[in-house]
Specification:
8-stranded mixed β-sheet, Rossmann fold, globular, about 280 residues, alpha/beta, 8 strands
């Protein structure tokens, strides 16, 4: 395990909550305090490791909470469902066990953004803000990103397949694919059981986020493979249901913007969280 991942594992506090017939695994960094906790939901076929370059900077002043989503990483499969809503319900129940009545900020990446939208639709006043990163499921066409099958490959061919998939879907600049990114991709691929790509072409996120009472933001890397070159259409689709939503672009970055442009992402997320507080809608 890379030094950074080992250090993060060593510092994390691990908590388990119910998930289907098994348990959902959460990792917490930082100390509970005056600052509102930040919950980070990783992407499809991923794990908490999607946030490897964000956890330490973001946990300096607040508690950071990262689950392995149901059926991914170390978490058990959820019960069968034809909608993300029941999976979001598992997340909400887990957060209630961990945080009780405390407020929290929520940020979801890709499939995690879809679940964040459904969680925001179900949440009450405990949710302070929701940030969607690299989100699909707005009912808009997405770019075709042909990926190579990895499971049957070994050795250098397996590494090459991972590198191809990261360059095709996750990074704008293939030169930024480093050994840590490849290690994360390998660990995530081995553990992934839940298949989420079928939700991406629906209006599931747009429909769910319309019911959110917390302030909403939408963030993309400028060269996000699933949205480029029509990112503005996604901002417009969000504002059809959340007119006050805040939108942001990180120049030169791709879909996995939190990794490829970690410093810029961390800064813009913290700025967004501060600004959204000023416009928070109170629950009815």
């Amino acid at each position: 395990m890379a030094e950074l991942l080992a250090r993060l594992e060593a510092k994390a506090r691990r908590i388990e909550t119910p998930c289907g017939e098994g348990r959902m695994v959460w990792r917490l960094w930082g100390e509970p305090g005056a600052a509102t906790p930040l919950v980070l939901l990783h992407g499809g076929s991923g794990s908490w490791r999607h946030w490897a370059r964000n956890i330490e900077p973001l946990s300096r002043n607040r508690q950071v909470i990262c689950p392995d989503l149901p059926g991914l990483g170390d978490s058990a499969m959820p019960p069968p469902a034809d909608s993300p809503a029941p999976v979001a319900g598992i997340l909400r129940a887990g957060l209630a066990d961990i945080l009780g009545p405390r407020h929290y900020d929520l940020c979801g990446f890709s499939f995690g953004a879809l679940l964040a939208g459904h969680l925001a639709a179900q949440a009450g006043g405990e949710l302070r803000s929701v940030t969607l990163v690299g989100a699909g499921a707005f009912g808009l066409p997405r770019q075709i990103t042909p990926l190579r099958k990895v499971r049957s490959e070994t050795g250098e061919a397996r590494i090459a397949a991972h590198r191809h998939n990261l360059a095709t879907l996750m990074f704008a600049d293939a030169g930024r694919i480093d050994p840590l990114a490849l290690e994360i991709q390998e660990a995530n691929t081995v553990a992934a059981r839940f298949r989420s790509r079928g939700f991406a072409s629906t209006t599931s996120l747009k429909d769910a986020i319309a019911a959110a009472r917390a302030p909403v933001a939408l963030l993309y890397g400028e060269r996000d493979a699933i949205a480029f070159p029509e990112i503005e259409r996604r901002f417009a689709a969000l504002r059809e249901v959340q007119p006050g939503a805040w939108a942001g672009l990180i120049p030169g970055a791709g879909h996995w913007v939190a990794y490829e442009a970690a410093e810029s992402f961390n800064a813009i997320l913290e700025d967004m969280l501060a600004r959204r507080l000023e416009h928070r809608r109170e629950p009815a």
